[in-house]
Write a structure and sequence with these properties.
Ubiquitin-like (UB roll), Creatine Kinase, Chain A, domain 2, 5-stranded mixed β-sheet, 7 helices, 21% helix, cytoplasm, EC 6.3.1.2
Length: 340
């Protein structure tokens, strides 16, 4: 019998930005295969995570995805949904509300973030009491003058790949100490699972570096001339992948126009500080779309056009601290409402 370490992960009840929580269950298994069918529900004290009152504090953790834990011997990462004691989805459970049971929707998320030094409380590369050179030379840079944090980023990429995530790439971003990774999945729930697992691996990794990750969309201040952090959502369904019709694409984009408020509500806290119309963003009060336009709310990739209007769209508004479950769920609802 082998001892198996199961790290149960869940999202807490903090509003409007939820946090990852986790705890370890050690079980004995004779021949563990790493499948959901081998896992039991678990519980936790919801009164400590703003998900229950102290007098009735048990919340249920329902496993929904499992991945090998590349940093532990006989370890696994278990993404869960939070349920009430009666088995119904907890109000904090955004994953349960996603309307994509057939996995027709595909999502590719681009997760931007800043690596912060725990001691200085500043992004890597920022001197105490001052600023590094203006942005321009940091994006996709190489060399110690402009590139900061590569060791952590490379190790994180390896961990994600070893965990079996569909990890698609990394690059340094426009601001000093800012990076991005990309993940793709067929199925909105799976895409959300993989972003949260990747965030967990990144956050846990910083513990040995003396760093922390700042997912705030504008951590350097809204008035500073530095790019903010987003989580651009690339999405498609069968219609977008196969229609071959410009008018259909425009109809789907137009479906987003009357529900700007509903999207912004779930696209991340403090996003108004990032969506100003500057630094490759559209203003939070506006809605626009355009071919190859990184200053639009929704970008129509040039590859989609070149392939005869068969491909995907990119919603550039989601913030780096947004919940991918809620973002994907809202996008799906809007796309399904399009009059095509």
């Amino acid at each position: 019998m082998a001892k198996i370490k199961l790290e149960y992960l869940w999202l807490d009840g903090y509003k409007p930005t939820q946090n990852l929580r986790s705890k370890t269950k050690v079980e004995e298994h004779e021949n563990f295969q790493g499948t959901l069918e081998e896992l039991d529900n678990w519980s936790f004290d919801g009164s400590s995570t703003r998900q229950a009152e102290g007098g009735s504090s048990d919340c249920i953790l329902k496993p929904v995805a499992i991945y090998p834990d590349p940093d532990r011997i006989n370890g696994y990462l278990v993404m869960t949904e939070v349920l009430n004691a009666d088995g119904t989805p907890h109000e904090s459970n955004g994953r349960a509300s996603i309307d994509d049971d057939d996995n027709d929707f595909w999502f590719g998320f681009e997760q931007e973030y800043f690596i912060m030094d725990t001691h200085t409380q500043l992004p890597l590369g920022f001197p105490i009491g001052g600023y590094p050179a203006p942005q321009g030379m940091y994006y996709c840079s190489v060399g110690g003058k402009n590139t900061h944090g590569r060791s952590l980023v490379e190790e994180h990429a390896n961990l994600c790949i070893d965990a079996g995530l569909n990890f698609e790439g990394i690059n340094q971003e426009v601001a000093c100490g800012q990076w991005e990774f990309q993940l793709f999945a067929k199925g909105a729930k799976k895409a959300g699972d993989e972003i949260w697992i990747a965030r967990y691996l990144l956050d846990r990794l910083t513990e040995k570096y003396g760093y922390y990750i700042d997912y705030h969309p504008k951590p350097l201040g809204k008035d500073m001339d530095w790019n903010g952090s987003g989580m651009h959502a690339n999405f498609s369904n069968t219609t977008l992948r196969t229609c071959g019709d410009k008018a259909t694409y425009e109809a789907i984009c137009e479906a987003f126009r009357p529900v700007v408020k509903e999207h912004i509500e779930v696209y991340g806290e403090f996003n108004d500080q990032r969506l100003t119309g500057l630094h490759e963003t559209a203003a939070i009060t506006d809605f626009s779309y355009g071919i190859s336009d990184r200053g639009a709310s929704i970008r129509i990739p040039i590859i989609t056009v070149e392939k005869g209007w068969k491909g995907w769209l990119e919603d550039r508004r989601p913030a780096s601290n947004g919940d991918p479950y809620k973002i994907a769920g809202r996008i799906i609802k809007t796309v399904k409402s399009a009059k095509i």
